[in-house]
Amino acid sequence: MSLSQYFEKAKGMGVLATTDASGQVNQAIYAKPCFLDPDDDTTCSFIMANRLTHDNVSRNPSAAYLFLEQGVGFAGKRLSLEVIGEEADSEKIKAVRRCSAPPISEDEGRYLVHFHIEGVRPLIGNA
Asked: Lower CB count within 10 Å: N or C terminus of the chain?
């Protein structure tokens, strides 16, 4: 099963971890990553408000995403990410919200931030 198929079908909760330029860590609850091209499992995107997480990835492009599957046990994925670009096109962001709908008010700036997936590991273990 491809990574995009996994996230399309999996139910659960995700956390995106970022750091600022000095290394101060922040974690935030995030929706599942969006795969704009379902045949490309090396690139994913997240919609971000103009908040701390976006500020952090603007200064330090490395991030980590942890996804815990709903249910019994400890199943899920850990993604190592690197920012490769962003967009602020409101129409494109609106179209992407179908697969990623964070609670962002209409007053906040929104960005569609694209990441290269540097690595994928299970939730538990080093495989």
From this structure: C
